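Can you give me the bound-state structure? Components:
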Amino acid sequence: MASMPGMTMSAGGGQGSGAGGAPAAANAVTIKGFAFVPAAITVKAGTTVTWTNQDWDAHTVTSQHDGGPLGSTALNTGQSYSYTFAKPGTYSYLCTIHPFMTATVTVTP
Amino acid sequence: MASDPAGMTRRQLARHAGWFGAAVVLSVSGGEVISHIAHDRDSAAAAASAADANALRFVQVSDSHIGFAGPANTNVTGSFDRAIEQINTLGFRPHFVMHTGDLTHLSTLAQFDQVRQMMSGMRTERVFTVPGEHDSVDDHGRAYRQAFGGGTLGDGWYSFDTHGVHFIALVNTLSLEKLGHLGPDQIDFVRKDVAGLSSDTPIVLFSHIPLFAMYPQWGWSTDDALQVLSLLKRFASVTALNGHVHQLFTRVEGNVTFHSATTTAYPLPKPGMAPAPTPQVLPAGRLQDALGIRTVKYRQGDTSLAITDQRLA
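Here's the bound-state model for the whole set.
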């Protein structure tokens, strides 16, 4: 997948967060069954969150509101996207290909 | 050729439509003669055939998702090929074919090239499209407009007239959040577009996502559609044709009749009948029952359009 301009990428992007079925780490979101799992996570400012697509279909990780920081390209099966949250706040996002898929990241100081 | 309203003003397009309409009369008559011989011999049917010769007939197809490769349909290209073959053997030559979006699955140039090439095999004078959200992945619809947006306005919207009907093709998949969205520029376009029309002009709207609240929990609605529909309240006949939901559904609200079309690719669940609107795998041999094409007929002076949905043959 092409790099994501303007995004902070983790060095290990593309690696999953562990064996399939294992609970996601606090900073990892799995995309599976047309859903973000977990649909709500809370992390501290400065944390890099990684989304990994384990679905057979492609998905995006995209901020719900214009100007939001999240903006992946279409992630095919097995591909990942990462973003480091510098500022506290609530970040809502969706998959633009399947916009019924919504979720949030809450960033605390 | 899979064409678009390239470089045409509405008036030019209407004139062009009139020209191909004249050519189509012959093939329509031919089709009706065959039908007449097969089914009817009474003079009433013959009179109806004569009236039908002047009728507008067009086809709506939707959600071909070229490039999709999931278990719900492992051969979407083959399904769309069959839909095109069904259009080409209707027994009449439709005045135009409208594809109401999700032409491709992931908006790649190769997928746009493929669907455009396939649609060039449709035996019709014009092919129109509106984009789905799958046609604007990553690029706000740029690749879509490159392939299909010639001569359109704004993000790809346009209008045209033929057979006394005013058609408006809307784009509600670009600025979507959870629901479809039209935006102020497009609403302003509609306001100006219909300003000079008499209230007895039949209006047909095309969009990908429904303009009515079919099931907002799954995003099957358009958040600012009421602003457009309120501009159309004075019109006696308004018909809105959409795709996106991969199933047939009809609703009447005020002066507007909404018809959701099915897909040529794969079914989605009925509203609320599954945790999410994900592609449904049907038992072997049942897939094509869920797929289909739609033909629409309108005779000048009628108050509504005659809509016929056909399963994929």
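A couple of observations. The radius of gyration of chain A is 12 Å. Chain A touches chain B at residues 33-35, 56-58, 60, 64-66, 73-74, 94, 96-102 (CB under 8 Å).
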